[in-house]
# Entry
Amino acid sequence: MGQLRVGIYPGTFDPITNGHVDIIGRATRLVDRLVIAVAANPDKGPMFNLQERVEMIQEQVALMRNGDGSHIEVRPFDKLLMHFVQDLGATLILRGLRAVSDFEYEFQMAGMNTRLDPNVETIFLMASERQQFIASRFVKEVARLGGDISHFVPPEVAQRTARKLAQQDRRFA
# Structure
């Protein structure tokens, strides 16, 4: 048997959206082991802390494939992505693209990563047609303004988001 294909799907996932879930499901067909790498990324000022984001993704992974997420792992990281990739012995980075506007940034990042380690490939997966417009930052904005996010995120994530916003409202009241 050949070497396992280990892929990393990195992101902030603040919060995880239906678009992310779609990419995760499709990525599992490309690799033997998928590690969803949740970036600490405090500079982005996430709504959810790192542990909450990891938990939300773990909940979704548990629901995938009738609860069998055995070849999918969720791990937080707070270092250079390429160091994380190398630590896990991965050879693929999987990135989702929603629109042409994503491509320029992702193309530059892939080029930088290739310079850091030419043995690691970056694979781009286009978002499904129904998910192309979904971005975590828009989901948070809609939720903060009282809009319905149930079409953009899994039900558990919509509930967590509502609870998080209610907690914030109580703190600022």
